[in-house]
Amino acid sequence: MSDAFGIALTALRAFDKKLDVNANNIANVNTDKFKKSRVDLQEAASGGVQVTIEQISTPGISLGTNERTGEERESSNVTMEEEFIDQMVTQYAFESNMLIVKTADEMQKSLLDIIS
After folding, report:
1. Which of 33, 37, 44, 100 could form a disulfide bond with 50, CB atoms 3.0-4.6 angstroms apart?
2. How many angstroms separate the CA atoms of 15 and 37, rounded?
3. Rounded CA gap, 12 and 91, in Å?
4. pLDDT tens digits, residue range 45-69?
């Protein structure tokens, strides 16, 4: 039973990190040359979830040349549609894992009631 708790808790931490990265991307959507990050979730050897954060280097849209500095301007490579979809999927996954924790807790309480 504790395995279910442990695995679900690592998943909750992973989805929390994913939401943090998603929020950072959204906050920087209007920051020139900002490169979005993505969170990759993999099964860990221990049965939990391993988190890897990767910066996506695709270019943003060219905004022309800055007249004062002569520097080429580029938008961020963040697309709000993609970020909102990712945020919704992550929220559903987070809620699913919360249900796993709740169910495991109820099962453990039932088991303790049977034993006592």
Report:
1. 44
2. 14
3. 10
4. 878 889 999 999 999 999 999 888 8
Kindly list the domain boundaries of the chain, sorted by start residue: 2-105
Helix, strand, or coil (residue 89): helix
Among 92, 95, 87, CA closest to 22: 87
With CA atoms as reference, report the closest residue to 97 among 59, 49, 58: 49
Asked whether the beta carbons of 6 and 47 are under 8 A apart, the reply is: yes
Residue 5's Cβ-side half-sphere holds a number of Cα atoms within 13 Å equal to 7
Separation in Å, CA 66 to CA 29, 70, 71, 76, 78: 19, 5, 5, 16, 21
- CA 44 → CA 6, 53, 59, 96, distances in Å? 12, 15, 32, 19
